[in-house]
Amino acid sequence: MTPPPLTRKTLALVFLALWALVLGTTLIGFIDLGQYNIVVSVAFAAIQALLIALFFMQALYEGRIIRIIITGGIVWFLIMETLTLGDYMTRGWLPFPGK
Amino acid sequence: MQLQDQVHIGGSADMTIETIAEPVRKNYLNDKQGILSWLLTTDHKRIGLLYTFSITVLFFIGGFFALMMRLELLSPRNWLVSTETYNKLFTMHGIIMVWFFLIPSIPNTIGNFVIPLMIGAKDLAFPKLNLASWYVFMLGAGVTIYALFRGGVDTGWTFYTPFSTGYSTTYVIAAAMGIFISGFSTIMTSVNFIATIHRMRAPGLTWFRLPIFIWSMYANSVVLVLNTPVLAITLVMVAVERVFQVGIFDPALGGDPVLFQHMFWFYSHPAVYTMVLPGMAVISEIVPVFSRKPIFGYTAVAFSSVGIAVIGFLVWGHHMFVAGESVYSAMAFSLLSYFVAVPSAIKVFNWTATMYKGSVSWDTPMLYAIGFIGLFTIGGMTGLFLAALGLDVHVHDTYFVIAHFHYIMVGGTVMAFLGAFHYWWPKISGKLYPEGLGKLGAMIVFLGFNLTFFPQFVLGYLGMPRRYAAYPEEFQMLHIISTAGATILGVGYILPLCYLIWSWKYGKPAGPNPWRATGLEWQTSSPPPTHNFKKTPVVNVRAYDYEAMKEQLGLREREFENV
Ligand SMILES: [Cu+2]
How far away is chain B from the Cα of A3, in angstroms, using its nearest Cα? Predict the structure, then answer.
């Protein structure tokens, strides 16, 4: 397998971007955006995960099977999230008898 | 030309003659000697045997706990062990049987041994990773045994919160750590299998020419790679909350105890399929050989493994119907749980159809296979009872559940495990086991199993809860029958252990293909040489081509009869 065309410069940039996002996540904690706080921090976390997968785990430079497997992992994670949150979000829909 | 190729695949008779003519052949067992040659081996066949040894020991440890429980339950009152000890008994029985026997049982022993042989490879893709996996497994088992000797765990194998994180005073973290470590071994083996099946198939062995065993083991490995990390992180979170009081599952700290169940069962329901898929893999090999027919509906059986792997991930909420899960969510999980019965049923119907009009012979592996089909069907059907929302409320956490999953795991997986060892024993050891004792053992196991677990369906339906050391007197008769059955079952497990070990030394030489089976593993000598094949086999026929084989052998046999 040929080594991926990752230069030190790219790696350094990704590294800095990750730290910038860490800083961003921390700072967001001090600003009150109401329910949007969670949206912003999850978005930051998602970008961080994406950067790590694409560059550090070299998903950007891998073959088809590896990409399918990574996508599979993400889809499975979403299955877990969707069905679990499906439970939490529908719990209040039906009133408890007597309440 | 086509017929010529089939002659090549089915050419077992010639090979037998060749083996007889050549008395001592270099094989993987006598190639190198000494304990170090085993502990440092990278040969998948030897690693398979290392696993077999470890797993057998662990099986009997887990079995000992089961026996202690069954003895305790002879009497409605506590008489043998304290209630605290009883809690530890069922917990350690569950932990050892699930993670240190059932999950690695067939893949890491038989799978390790036969996958490379079946696909015509010299070894697995990463032989050193394979050895590392065994050491990691032993470390995990060691840590769990350590927890056991320090005083055990009493949370149940499910580690439910808030008991496990807040209240239990036993060695929860040590036991969880042992399981966490063994998870890495599972992932190592699974990654190895996936890479091997993708990359190392013999020339001409396309996906749809693969034995069904490979399909099922592939699906199984994918499931394990996807779900094991979730268990690992869940157990870490239990430890973190237990030690640092971080609020994850404890409502007092802002957590949610049902979240634990979501995460645990997201792992553990698919884990149930990773216990039974390898069993199905074995049955899909045994049934065609002893029916002398190709498997009925190859494509359907192959894809049903994939179907089980995928749908198995969508049903975990059926463990939480009474745990505070929302009614809508419960309805969705109930419906999805019914769907997963479809691919399982496809397999059962297709195995049965394979036997239909086949020339069925009743050798030991086939007895185990038929036992598997029957018991797995009962286990699966009662699973549908439990998937039904309303009925589950009635039988939740009763012996009905215990009986249901033991029909799948003991009636299914353990039967398949024993069937597999009898079927591939001639290949592994180069010797034949005593067939009469084999059949007797299979009957004893079948009888003992049903006597142990069928009464538990009744007990559960009548309201006997699981995990109780004492019970109302009206349940005693059924408990006594169950304990009697467990004793018979114990004899049924010790018997094969004895005669298989005996035959290792004293058995008759098996020859390369005693079952006259198709499949590449039967084309090399028994035991196989270290690198499996003298030269890489080339495949240009489908799997299980018994009709072609029958024609050729039939011709020969008829000549024989005429003489
Ligand atoms: Cu389940």
Answer: 20
